[in-house]
Every structure is written in C-alpha cells, then in structure tokens.
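Escalated from tier 1: adenosine-5'-diphosphate holo job.
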Amino acid sequence: MEKLIGQTRLVLTQGDITQADTEAIVNAANSRLAGGGGVDGAIHRAGGPEIMAECRKIGSCPTGEAVITTAGRLKAKKVIHTVGPIYRGRPEDPRLLANAYGNSLDLAAQYGLSTVAFPSLSTGAYGYPLDMAAKVALEAVKRGIEKNSGKFEEVRFVLFGQEAFDAYAQALSKL
Ligand code: ADP
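Tier 2 regenerated the structure:
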C-alpha cells in the first residue's frame, strides 16, 4: 500500500526491517542505547558488533530524539536510532512519538539518505496502542516529508505482522 506525498512515496510493507534495502533503517532504541529485545535486538544481531560500538561512543539519546551510526553488515548504509515514549496515556506521549519520527527524518535528510525504513516505534515493549501509534506515526512522517521537501524518494514502514500492517493501512487511508 502506498501514497504519494509531494514527490515522495510513503509505503507500507510487512516484514523484517533488518532485510530492508533502504539507505537508512530506523531502530526503536532505548535512551541508554544499551540494546534490548524486539527490533533493536534484531538489528544488532543482523548488523554485528560495529553498531553497538558506535552506540557506546555516543552514550545516550533522550526520548523523542535520534542519533546515527554505521549499519555494520546490513544492506542499509546507516542506522538511525530513535527513542519513542513508553506509553503511559500522558498528553505528551503523542508529541514525543511524533518527535521521534520527525527527528529521524531530519537526520536522514542531513546525511543525504533518500530512502528510509521505519518500524512501528513504541508499539512493542513500550506498549503504545497500535491504532493510536499508527495515526501519530503517519501524520508525523507526512510532516517530516513536507518539511524536507525534495529530500526523500521513499519512506517505508516495515511492519511486523498482520495486525500492525492493518492498523497502519487503516491510518494511511485516513491521512
Ligand atoms: P519499543 O520498545 O519501541 O516498543 P519494540 O522493538 O519492542 O520497540 O517494538 C516495536 C515494533 O517493532 C513492534 O511493533 C514489534 O512487533 C516490531 N518488530 C520487532 N521485530 C521487528 C523486525 N525484525 N522488523 C520490524 N519490526 C519489528
């Protein structure tokens, strides 16, 4: 499923983000960049120890912000590590989640990375309800594409499983 935002394709796919052939892939990191389970564990396993070595040098990343490292053995050139909020139903949760997407896209644009793949940030261990997260994610990505006009060929969501894909497809149809 896809939609054109200016010249940029916004694409929804289902699969494993470690296999994505985009120039950048985004990781759902924690603020200590310490490694974890979920998509973070998969990216470090597939990409090898070089990624964690750079994370250690960077040290940490506040919620809503993003940092960039090598992609090690992955097909991508760079991994952008961003930190979504732990969902608590607070009014700032959607803003922090939107910031994580927006700051990741700004960083990709700064590095001249024109194809970017995102997982569904915050919707695993961090507990953000999928349908709410999908709406925030797609609105934030649309704004990020418009802000960095002409910089992106494709922004892709690689969704893990049918339930996540369906939630994003529903949100995209309303965007
Ligand atoms: P968070 O801590 O931000 O919630 P998680 O990694 O626990 O991060 O989950 C974020 C999303 O990533 C979840 O929807 C989960 O199903 C998904 N996910 C897990 N592994 C992969 C993978 N290899 N590729 C893409 N998405 C993945």
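Residues 16-18, 28, 38-40, 42, 84, 119-126, 158, 160, 164 surround adenosine-5'-diphosphate (CB under 6 Å).
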